[in-house]
Amino acid sequence: MNGFSISKYHDTAKIYEKIDRLMQLPIYSINKSAMEKYIIHFDTKCSQSNKIITKAKKRIPGGVQHNLAFNYPFPIVIEKADGAYLWDADGNQYIDFLQAGGPVMLGNNYAPVRNKVIEVINEVGPVTGLFHEYELKLAEEINRHMPSVEMFRMLGSGTESVMAAIRVARLATKRKKVIKMGGAYHGWSDQMVYGLHIPRTGGFEAHGIPGSCRKHTQEVYPNKIEALRKNLSRNRIKGGTAAVIVEPIGPESGTRPVDEDYNSQIRELCDERDVLLLFDEVVSFGRIGLAGAQGYFGVKPDLTIFGKVVAGGYPGAGGLGGRRDLMEHLAAGIEGGKKRAYVGGTLSANPMSSAAGYYTIQEIEKTNACEKAGRAADLLTKGLNEFIDEMSLPFAAYNQGAICHLETAGAMFVKLNYLKIRAVLREINARKHAMEEIGAAYMAERIVTLAGSRMYTSMADTDEVIEDALSRFRNVFANIEPKSEL
Ligand SMILES: Cc1ncc(COP(=O)(O)O)c(C=O)c1O
């Protein structure tokens, strides 16, 4: 027992080989007659959801408030969650591989944590604005598992925590440039909506954000250490780099996988150039292990960004931790004159979120949840790859512990060519549509995925649950055919 969900590191080159092949073939999607049946399924079996969402569209933009929610043919309304399952407003039961986008490791609505949270709320309510001992308990618990986190400050979300990390890095180094990996998502702050999903896209998605906000944000191609080295060198003559920020498992929760020694190479480079290394462990903390991806790779960042599991699936999931000398820049209070990295949040570090995080960490450790969830994802990946081979489909299934990727449409792997931008946009849209159709088919087979291409597993995913899920995936795969030549 080592507490990590990764049992064996993937073969990065082999995954890219498969993805490259996928991108050279026609787009595969659900055949016409099966898609018609799936749409009839939604119309007949999900009428309650349809009714609620039709009304919601009048009051809520797009009728849904989560970017990762399924919108095709219409979003499903969830009324109940327990263990590996979700139930919709029509009473349909789903196997849940969305896991709220990552924070759920113990299974949905896990009673031992819920009961503790209710106890805390009964006693003190959700928030007082003053200190509660659970804040200290959570900080101590994180430090016990992740020694690089000498100090910890809890914040409201991963997005806020990335903002705080960059602010501290700039204050501490007195430099401005921040380098991220192309395609990585680090929340939606003005400076980080840059190079999203697809490398080299820069401010492509930064609508409503002035260019000046991303003036000091740069992206380098992931898993290419020389690209980072060159960028750092270039920056030297332009005032230097404050920090390199990476998701250690690779951009987009490892959708773009990285080599096992990539993080240690980045660490070396940052040390050589006296640049701070920020690990975004919003997804990986508590999912790869309680020691985080940094524990798995044996690489110590200067600052670690938290989210999701840090509040056990409860609201208020964010935090920043790391070297004492850097974290001191975040000292709270109303003391004037001191140079500090300004952060805040009315509801940050409330007793409910702190207690939820504290008990979640304890339960994950006690139950060995990361290893269990990793085993489930290993089984799922193995089963998917067996079907893929058996049915001669050009898809790629791979996992980093309890994060499983199933690339069927390759929407995030489209190669950019600014000279042929219309063709590129057409391809992205066609691949997104295929992803949407396949995602809808999974949903009709009662499997909830993240955007039709990612599955987060939890401790609740027993062998039986995975077997059941695999037979549903098989049903979908049986309806897939090559659809378009690009
Ligand atoms: C790697 C990573 N960083 C940051 C964030 C932003 O976190 P939040 O949604 O809590 O703002 C996310 C969210 O999915 C994420 O995956």
Average of per-residue pLDDT values: 95
Bound ions, cofactors and other small molecules, one mention each: pyridoxal-5'-phosphate
Give the DSSP E fraction (strand runs of 2 or more residues): 5-15%
Structural shape: globular
Count of β-strands: 16
Helix share, percent: 40-55%
- As a whole number of angstroms, the C-alpha radius of gyration is 22 Å
| Terminal CA distance | 48 Å
Question: What class do helices, strands and sheet pairing give?
Answer: alpha/beta
Major sheet: 7 strands, mixed
Unreliable spans are none
The order of strands across the largest sheet is 5-11-10-9-8-6-7
What is the count of DSSP helices, taking H or I runs of 4+ residues?
15
Key features of this structure:
486 residues, alpha/beta, 7-stranded mixed beta sheet, 4-stranded mixed beta sheet, 15 helices, globular, binds pyridoxal-5'-phosphate
Quick summary:
The chain has about 475 residues and is an alpha/beta fold.
Description:
It is built from 15 helices and 16 strands. The model has no long low-confidence stretch (mean pLDDT 95). It has helices spanning 12-24, 32-45, 47-59, 111-124, 133-145, 158-173, 225-236, 251-254, 262-273, 292-297, 324-327, 351-367, 369-390, 421-444, 463-477; strands spanning 27-30, 78-82, 85-88, 93-96, 151-155, 177-181, 217-220, 241-246, 276-280, 303-307, 318-322, 396-400, 403-407, 447-448, 454-456, 480-484. A 7-stranded mixed sheet has the order 5-11-10-9-8-6-7, with helices on both faces. It has a 4-stranded mixed sheet with strand order 2-3-4-14. It has a 3-stranded antiparallel sheet with strand order 12-13-15. The N and C termini lie far apart (48 Å). The radius of gyration is 22 Å and the shape is globular. It has 486 residues and is an alpha/beta fold. Helix 2 (32-45) packs across helix 14 and helix 13 (369-390) packs parallel to helix 15. The longest helix is centred in the last third of the chain and has 24 residues, at 421-444. Bound molecules: pyridoxal-5'-phosphate. The site of pyridoxal-5'-phosphate (PLP) has 15 residues, from helix 6. The site of pyridoxal-5'-phosphate has 15 residues, from helix 6.
